[in-house]
Amino acid sequence: MKLSVIFDAAEKVSTDVIIISLFENTKKIPSELNAINKASGGGISSLIQNGDFTGKLNETVIVPTDKKIVPKRVLLVGLGKSTDFSLDRVRQAAGTATGVIREKRFKNPSILLYGMEIKGISMEDVTRSVVEGILLSLYNFTMYKTLKKEEKTAITNYSIVVQRKEILGRVKSVTNRAQTVAEAVCFTRDIVNMAGSDATPTFLANKAKEIAKKPGVKCKILSSHEMKKLGMNGILNVSRGSSQPPKFIILEYNSKKKSNDTIVLIGKGVTFDSGGISLKPGANMDLMKADMSGAGAVLGAFKAFSSLKPSAHLVGLVPCTENMPGGSALKPGDIIKCMSGKTVEVLNTDAEGRLLLADALSYAKKYKPDAVIDIATLTGACVAALGTFASGMLGNNDELKNRVKQAGEECHERVWELPLWDEYQALIKSTIADIKNTGGKYAGTITAACFLKEFVGEFPWVHLDIAGTFLAEKNTPYIRKGASGVGVRLLTHLIQDWKKMPDASKRSS
Q1: Domain 2-164 has CATH 3.40.220.10
Q2: Which tens digits make up the pLDDT trace of 416-475?
Q3: What is the distance in angstroms between the CA of the first residue and the CA of the last residue of the chain?
Q4: Which of 222, 248, 306, 415 could disulfide-pair with 393, CB 3.0 to 4.6 Å?
């Protein structure tokens, strides 16, 4: 499908349907709709006055134009109350309208972009949200389906229409960038939705190599032998029960621009998590193919960076393995020495992701980072605490936490902070090793982050637990059931406009 931006009067656009968004209980249509309303014989105002369209969020009405104007149809979509206006409502409305178009199988739809610059929201922000709503709602995972011709998406060209020539260039620029990010989200959704026997550590490593073919991106893959030399026993021990070899993916962008901030992104890449010897219950174990959603988010973000061209020096670290039971698998009660030299008592082999991240955090130190963000489907406790509408956030630096939270609010991949107090740190102390890999039955998300903190050192760090947000349990206006691709939009939004971090010594606990 081609997504284009055109300058034209709404009533003159050659299209199967033109989408127009309106606020709830609009009494007078906006001036930018006067021409199309008049040309259509007052059709839009008539729908409003007769109560056939109220503008409630995601309400839709589609009407033929009977050749009074060039567009064959008008599709009205509601934005809800103007007092509740947000960018996510724009995203929802665009996604909802696109869903109607997909269902009706229109090949050449258009959407009118017009004056919604209210409450400090810019036209650029509105454009980005419209593009994301369109493209993310069109995603459909069909890799394993035998589709009939009529089941395939029919849209060939989707136009964004602007009626003010002075904003045309800005809208085109933002559209291109937003399309890059949306396509990266869909890339991540694909690999997370794939079967675990297909999306193996080797598969992810090969995807990383493909990403590195883009300008400015480098890739290195560490083998088991190389990891052993580095002492990455967290990863190696988790992989012991699997026939699939582990991989440690290193991606780098802007490697020559060391004068800029260095940001390290770490993604947990357990491509299937059976729990190991501490075997998970059979119910819903199929979802554990998605325990590499953090890895998928980092790979997706790097797929976008080459086109977005952020100024920061970026490093992606993605430790990948399966966690399987077997004769050689890691056992409860085993003691392992991680790359940092710390020893860990393994009480539960299903608390494996933190062992991978521990080695990745230790490896991150070689880059002397100004900020480190790890992202992982780490704990079921996070789902119990926050549900499916927010990712858990913990960290050691207020500035970095605030930046992540703000980026999450702006792209609607929201995070909520949990504490990292010293009292929790005591819960992971072991009597026979330095630390243990579980902290008991309470505060599981916090004690998991306390474990990670042991390997962080002094650099600014944020941990994101996406166990509740990696999956959409049902269709929403712009996310289909299945992998959500969470993290890609948050990370790219955070990094696109990155400003140098203040003195890293100004930390919080």
Answers
A1: yes
A2: 999 999 999 999 999 999 999 999 999 999 999 999 999 998 999 999 999 999 999 999
A3: 48
A4: 415
